[in-house]
Write a structure and sequence with these properties.
The chain is α/β, with parallel strands linked by helices. Strand 1 and strand 2 form a beta hairpin. The protein contains 26 helices and 27 strands. Among the domains are: 67 residues, Phosphorylase Kinase, domain 1, CATH 3.30.200.210; 201 residues, Dimethylsulfoxide Reductase, domain 2, CATH 3.40.228; 134 residues, Barwin-like endoglucanases. Helix 11 crosses helix 12. The strands form seven sheets. The protein has a seven-stranded mixed sheet with strand order 6-5-18-17-16-7-8, with helices on one face. A six-stranded mixed β-barrel has the order 22-26-23-25-24-27.
């Protein structure tokens, strides 16, 4: 069986293809019917081993996304301030002229790169994005990682040794789930790849368990939970520290015997948490001391339990410390690396926890470099995107003069976006790999459109590293490329060749071969690899059979050298790309299993429960007990948080009418008490002011948000001159990141603070 089948439909054949949805982290299987190279129907794949037929509204719109008349099919070049369609050859010539001019004049460090969120769902970007970045040779790398999830990775790095070592809640076996700042009914999960997350939450309840949601707003997830705790924004760390304190004070700590031998810092942790009593933190958290104590006891006494913290806990000034405390509680309650607790995926294509020497490594650190203006530290090879604008606008040696963006819209998604909008207009040259002329790419001198999602092969290389089961699924392209259209990996490889001075006619297959050869050579020299000592040429030849190249060849190699791989014949029946093609509904390699100490890459070979940098940050966390989270003297006495909606989760999908139609979702949600105090009525337009910006937006009054907190959705503001997204422009909304502050970051990771922004809300004069 292949991923593409044919069935009779009258006199013409319908093609039925099975693929993984590439639009979010859930990784749902889709059944797509194609006739005459056009999609006619999309539904959930009932036989998918992971999703079992589940599909959300986004997955069903891949046809509309492909057919969108505003989606770019040919490159655009800006001439006299206007984007005009050109041939690929003309576009490449302009890329060469612009990038090499900057590199030759100002050096490679004058070129910056930005990779947007969709790259995490994109096999080409995950494989050949690195090829392009290495060829450019700059340290000025930015991405959406410092907008959302980086604190979790940094915390994982300090505790377990690598930034990719992040435990996920074992949803299908836990009896108790405490979720902080997570709304999977809208987001389908985050750093927790779990199709049909709602069904999995219901499963906990059906087997007699409990789901508790901690969030300032009563989200859709909170509505169906057993309990909603309306915490004040930015105080999740205090809440978790108090829970951990109670576990020590009330003798509830029960680290499993098999884990205790692999943990450092238990005594140090107890000492550091002495001052974080529930009574001390209750008022600032907005939760009673009794509630905090009860939750601590419930977690400790449940047969299995998992604490799961996501975007609401990472996009705050204590993001890294809070992410660390999530797993401190998982350790203390005896639920780290145990079924029903927080566990580690064994990714089929391998990853940081499957390479190197099991159980020991060099550990993790930040600060291998620093930004020029504010001296902010690097983390996992990139700088905080909150610093990008100032690095463009501030003159001097090392000033950013050129920018490459890949599938990103930072003008809408990053802090103080008006400043970044201004900065992009000052660049000497900008090139974007993107399917839309949007709020960011309108600044680009060249836009290079990749194929649509239906024209690309797909494997969730990154996201399956955080899956709640060990699964694998490969999807071949469903629709052919347009004539002359390069694949996305070829676009990235061509950029690499151009910046290396090889010219616009360079053969991208040479870059492909070089990258593949490097991977093979490293593996055959690695004593821990299943192909150690093998002939590199022999492996290259086998990988290249039948013209296999590009990302397909790379993923084949990763699968075959991964933990379930066939090791190029040494393990009969092991994972290969061909095996996945023969199993279009995916292969389930089973439930998560304990992996400590194997996954550890710390110098000690143990879980570092009390890393010095995180222990020290507890002082900063404790300071807000006295100061509070609201600056009452500034006049900005409300705290702004973001929110998501399932249909409009992604800003780049706001051009699909079926996803944005209906009642406006870009409103300011405000509690009745706060609205009354400001003489604001339902539907009124108000001014929302922060330290750095102001927007005007209609109000939605609701008791689903706690008093003192207001909420705006993320990703709107489609009214920029020069953009060409006609549907989005009709439902433009306002950009919440005009209000977020580029100077407000989590100092340990550099992550932007998008939640808990002090704002003033004022009724417009009538």
């Amino acid at each position: 069986m292949s991923t593409l089948q044919q069935e009779s439909s009258g006199t013409e054949a319908n093609k039925v293809a099975f693929r993984t949805c590439p639009l979010c982290e859930a990784g749902c299987g889709l059944e797509i019917t194609v006739k005459n190279n056009a999609v006619t129907h999309i539904r959930g794949d009932m036989q998918d081993v992971f999703s079992g037929g589940f599909i959300c509204p986004k997955g069903s719109t891949l046809k509309q996304l492909h057919d969108d008349p505003d989606r770019l099919r040919m490159p655009l070049v800006k001439r006299n301030g206007v984007h005009v369609e050109v041939s690929w050859q003309e576009a490449w010539a302009e890329v060469e002229r612009g990038l090499l001019a900057v590199i030759n004049t100002h050096g490679r460090e004058s070129v910056a790169t930005y990779m947007g969120n969709p790259t995490a769902h994109n096999l080409s970007a995950m494989t050949f994005g690195r090829v392009a970045l290495q060829a450019i040779g700059t340290k000025q790398r930015f991405s959406a990682s410092t907008v959302d999830q980086l604190p979790k990775q940094v915390a994982g790095g300090y505790m377990f040794g690598t930034a990719a070592t992040v435990p996920v809640p074992d949803l299908d076996r836990t009896q108790y789930l405490l979720m902080l700042g997570a709304n999977p009914y809208a987001s389908n999960g985050s750093m927790c790849t779990a199709p049909d997350f709602p069904k999995r939450l219901k499963g906990i309840q059906e087997r007699g368990g409990k789901v508790v949601v901690v969030d300032p707003r009563k989200t859709r997830t909170a509505e169906v939970a057993d309990e909603w705790l309306a915490i004040m924004p930015g105080t999740d760390g205090l809440f978790l520290a108090a829970i951990a304190h109670v576990m020590f004070a009330d003798k509830l700590v029960k680290v499993s015997p098999q884990l205790i031998a692999h943990i450092n810092g238990l005594a140090e942790m107890e000492q550091a948490l002495t001052r974080f009593t529930p009574e001390t933190v209750a008022d600032v958290c907005g939760l009673s001391a009794e509630t905090i104590r009860r939750i601590a006891h419930e977690i400790a006494q449940s047969p299995t339990a998992a604490v799961y913290g996501r975007i609401g806990t990472t996009t705050v000034s204590f993001g890294t410390t809070t992410s660390w405390l999530v797993d401190v509680v998982n350790v203390l309650s005896g639920n780290l690396d145990t079924p029903g607790g927080a566990m580690f995926t064994l990714p089929v294509a391998g990853g940081a926890t499957t390479r190197g020497t099991p159980g020991k490594g060099r550990g993790f650190r930040v600060g291998k470099g620093h930004t020029r203006v504010r001296h902010l530290p690097e983390a996992i090879g990139e700088y905080p995107v909150a610093a990008l604008a100032e690095e463009v606008l501030t003159p001097g040696e090392g000033q950013i003069k050129a920018l490459l963006t890949i599938a990103g819209n930072p003008v809408l998604s990053t802090p103080h976006s008006n400043q970044l909008d201004e900065a992009l207009a000052h660049l000497d040259f900008m090139v974007s790999v993107d399917i839309y002329l949007n709020e960011t790419t309108r600044h680009a001198h060249v836009i290079l459109p990749p194929p649509s999602h239906l024209q690309r092969d797909h494997y969730d290389l990154l996201l399956l590293q955080f899956a709640v089961r060990n699964v694998a699924n490969y999807s071949e392209a469903i629709l052919p490329l347009e004539e002359g259209q390069p694949d996305e990996w070829e676009i990235l490889a061509k950029i690499a060749a151009i910046v290396q001075g090889k010219g616009i006619d360079a053969d991208v297959s040479l870059s492909d071969d070089a990258a593949m050869r490097s991977m093979v050579n490293s593996a055959v020299k690695d004593s821990n690899s299943n192909v150690c000592g093998r002939d590199a040429d022999e492996i290259m030849n086998e990988l290249s059979l039948n013209g296999q190249c590009g990302p397909a060849r790379m993923i084949d190699f990763m699968l075959r050298t991964g933990p379930y791989g066939d090791a190029f014949g040494a393990a009969i029946g092991g994972a290969t790309l061909q095996l996945l093609k023969e199993n279009p509904h995916g292969i389930d390699y089973g439930a998560l299993q304990p992996r400590i100490p194997e996954i550890l890459r710390t110098p000690s070979g143990k879980v570092e429960l009390a890393p010095e940098v995180l222990i020290n940050d507890l002082d900063r966390l404790f300071d807000i007990v006295g100061s509070g989270v609201v600056d009452k003297n500034s006049g900005r006495n409300l705290l702004l948080i973001g929110r998501r909606h399932l249909r409009s989760n992604n800003s780049w999908m706001h051009n699909i009418n079926v996803l944005v139609k209906g009642k406006s979702r870009c409103t300011l949600i405000m509690h009745p008490t706060d609205a009354h105090a400001r003489s604001v009525n339902e539907g009124d337009v108000v001014s929302v002011q922060s330290r750095v910006g102001e927007v005007r937006v209609a109000v939605e009054i609701s008791d689903t948000i706690r008093p003192g907190v207001v909420s705006l959705p993320h990703g709107w503001g489609h009214d920029a001159e020069g953009s060409d997204m006609q549907v989005a422009a009709q439902v433009a909304g306002v950009n919440s990141n005009i209000l977020t502050d580029h100077e407000a970051i989590d100092p340990l990771s550099g992550n932007a603070v998008l939640n808990g922004i002090p704002v003033a809300v004022t009724a417009e004069s009538k």
